[in-house]
Amino acid sequence: MTFETTDATLLSTVQLTPDTIQLLLRAPDHAFDFQPGQHVGVAYESDEDGLVHRSYSPVSLPGTDTIALMVTRYEEGTCSVWLHDREPGDTIHLTSPSGNLHLRDENRDAVFLATGTGLTPMMAMMKAYQAEGEGRALLVYGERTTEDLAYRDTLDRWAAGSGSVDVAYALSRPEHADERSADPSGGGTTGMPAVRHGYVQEHLDELVAPGLLEEAHFFVCGVPDMVVDTKETLTGDLGVSSDSVFSEGWEEGA
Ligand SMILES: Cc1cc2nc3c(=O)[nH]c(=O)nc-3n(C[C@H](O)[C@H](O)[C@H](O)COP(=O)(O)OP(=O)(O)OC[C@H]3O[C@@H](n4cnc5c(N)ncnc54)[C@H](O)[C@@H]3O)c2cc1C
């Protein structure tokens, strides 16, 4: 089995959370061409597993010779462990971008709903939206605890900025009494992200303003159960048209 690949050199890795790193890769004389929200493949030959090929959604914008991936390590994982073990100077083969998650209309309000590594396509789309978007954008990002929130400083800064971007966090296992802005009703109006306890899909009616429900495009990415539940909540109780809700599309069968 062959894939169209681009060789990229690992420039640096940064630890984002206890389990998650960002890898910055560069392919000189190459302009990474994808729609923010789409994913690329990482492919390599392993003695134990043969050809390994997994998908990762860049958190960076297209059009340059560098690309940034955020990768969560699973103890029993194959490619995620291999990527966490790479060092600056190593070559990583990237395969062609594809995928159904990308902005349809930057002039339309957008709501991004993510859990875990589902944040990655949202980071790219939020960046594109901030660069070119005309409407309002809301990101609701679910994780277990505050320690698991990736890019928190960036997201807090976006929420505090003068733009029309809002961020809210949903923590499924808040553990520490001192979690930053753990006020379950707080944030949102103060320039700091709102923090809710529970799952993303449980808070949509409070977090998504009525105007957004009617006007916005909704982008959903996370574990399959979250995607299915969130889409059902949006198109059921909240009355959002299914034409306005976008996900990768494989989650229903997973
Ligand atoms: C469209 C798309 C985009 C993606 N984008 C990203 C991204 O940007 N960043 C990212 O980190 N991942 C992303 N993924 C997931 C990624 O493709 C791999 O599935 C992931 O890195 C695990 O691969 P692995 O080879 O390490 O694990 P595998 O060898 O495939 O799985 C081995 C074991 O690892 C554990 N494991 C694997 N995945 C999970 C999981 N999700 N939750 C809990 N345990 C697990 C399980 O024990 C599993 O049995 C994306 C997936 C898709 C389909």
What does the model show?
This protein is of the alpha/beta class and 254 residues long. The chain has 2 domains: 5-98, Elongation Factor Tu (Ef-tu), domain 3 (Beta Barrel); 110-247, Nucleotide-binding domain of ferredoxin-NADP reductase (FNR) module (Rossmann fold, 3-Layer(aba) Sandwich). It contains 6 helices and 12 strands. It has helices at 79-84, 119-132, 152-160, 204-207, 210-215, 224-235; strands at residues 5-17, 20-26, 39-46, 50-56, 66-72, 91-98, 110-115, 137-143, 165-171, 194-197, 217-221, 245-246. The strands form 2 sheets. Strands 4-3-6-1-2-5 form a 6-stranded antiparallel beta sheet. A 6-stranded parallel beta sheet has the order 10-9-8-7-11-12, with helices on both faces. The longest helix has 14 residues, at 119-132. The two termini are 24 Å apart. Residues 180-188 have low confidence and may be disordered.
